[in-house]
Design a protein that fits this description.
Blueprint: E1 8-9, E2 27-30, E3 33-36, E4 40-43, E5 49-53, H1 58-61, H2 69-72, H3 78-87, H4 96-108, E6 114-118, E7 123-128, E8 133-135, H5 141-147, H6 149-162, E9 172-176, H7 183-195, E10 201-204, E11 207-209, E12 214-218, H8 227-232, H9 240-254
Parallel strand pairs: 5-6, 5-9, 9-12
Antiparallel strand pairs: 1-4, 2-3, 3-7, 4-6, 7-8, 10-11, 11-12
Helix pairs in contact: 3-4, 5-6, 5-7, 6-7
Length: about 270
Amino acid sequence: MSSLPTHGRVQCTLCYKESIPSFDRSFTAQGDWRIRFNPLSWGSTNPEVIVLGFSKGPTQAGALATMNHNEIAYKGARLAVGKILAHVGLIPVATPHQLKKHIDQIISDSNGRFHFGSLVRCTAERYDKTSASWKGSGGGMLDKFVATQFGAYVTTNCASRFLRDLPARSKLIVMFGLGTKLNYVRESFNLFKRIRPGNWTKINDVAYSDSIVTVVHVEHFASQGRLLPNWLGEHPHPRAELGQLARAAVALAIGSDSGSSVAGQTTG
């Protein structure tokens, strides 16, 4: 039976003291970190592929009150999402207009091949002392949150609830984000070993599997500067190898031959 939430707002209060928290108003905090109650989900509950960000950034979270649900996910970054999914072989390579249209369609399709959400379904925010405000983005956000006791508590709750018991059809989890020196990959690998008992092994530097589900980390769609173009191989750069390793691991997970020749490579 699928543990994936249905398309729309998610009913989950594991991390909140209130029995009925107020959507986008209730918080759970510890130290300089907090989560805001606004869990959301898109796509199918019986997908072949699960695509997860880390948490909703300020662009997505800021659209909750004013936009249609299907327009919130990856708001302002759907072309980047399309380029990434095309690069690893999950959707056809196409023009920018076609890529954006394709992403629009699969995000809104509640009976399709894909499920979309985030590892932390609510919005994770860090208190910025300089501006005296809570922020849902910033350097090292992924790494720093998952390394804290609070972050471990939240991610374990979220992953146990939504990623432990997956449909038999689900073969692949794509995770946006690599982290500093692949730290997010390592922390996520440890998380999956905690919440899904099994024989977890590394496939390469950006992928791991329990022989049932394969998790593949790709560049984050909101990466700044040349990080995404370099990962996509648009320029000669060592980071392009991480994109090729992701493509190879995706090919192994869904039965494609594309890129399989480099699937076992591990960089230093």
